[in-house]
Amino acid sequence: MFHNNIVTIQANAILVSDAHYNPLRQDFLSFLNAILRTEIQTSQLILMGDIFDFLAGEITYFKKQNQEIIDKINHLANKIEIIYLEGNHDYNLENIFSNVKIITRKSQPLQCEFWDNTKYQSEIKTRKVMLAHGDIYTPKSYDLYTSIIRNSTLLKVLNFIDITNWLTKRIDFWLREKNLVHEFTDFEKFAIKRLYKYKYAKADLIIEGHFHQGKSYKTYTNLPAFGIENQYFSFLDKKIIKFQSKN
Fold first, then answer.
1. H helix count then E strand count, the chain
2. H/E element, 235
3. For the chain, how are helix, strand and coil distributed in percent, rounded to 5?
4. Digits of tens for pLDDT over the chain (247 positions)?
5. What count of other Cβ atoms lies within 10 Å of the Cβ of residue 27?
6. Backbone phi, psi, residue 123, to 5°
């Protein structure tokens, strides 16, 4: 399903996916600080999902654990435009982030446009871009699973019974041990399948996260996992850039 709320991607936009921020992976905090200090210059930051190892609006433990980064994103949103596409590790975020445009899974892919200057300066073309975290166009069983884990009532009940954080701590430490490296042996074949899913979009560019590949094929780009490679995507250059932390 494609949606009518078209977002304009700014020329110097930066896209970041799969930071999987937790107490053991904190480089994303340094990345946000670099933007605040204008060491990295952008007027639009697009967060492509799974920025946190886990975050949901109803779960107190993870909100407290991630409060510093939540505050940093909210502070930065007062200075630049931030668009946040929810992933499968971060959702129900509307009440957590102020001045951040939240794009739920149901609203993905997000239709965007950008103005493309050709070699003739007088010619400017509008290009169509589709953005998604990547966990869409999935089997119905997965769709059912995602609807269950996002159920606000269920999450509130789980939060209520998690008095001593016995459940959230188990989830937390399990996520910290999870392997984020998933390199595909045939990325081209994978990309062709993803392009087929988007065949009716007729987009000039399709960008997803979720799969942690950091590769492109024709009009499809799968972003690297920031939590593994400390890499982000510069929309102006259409290339992946390595972030070097200075603090």
1. 8, 14
2. none
3. 30, 25, 45
4. 344 468 999 999 999 999 999 999 999 999 999 999 999 999 999 999 999 999 999 999 999 999 999 999 999 999 999 999 999 999 999 999 999 999 999 999 999 998 876 544 455 568 899 999 999 999 999 999 999 999 999 999 999 999 999 999 999 999 999 889 888 999 999 999 999 999 998 899 999 999 999 999 999 999 999 999 999 999 988 899 999 877 6
5. 15
6. -100, 125
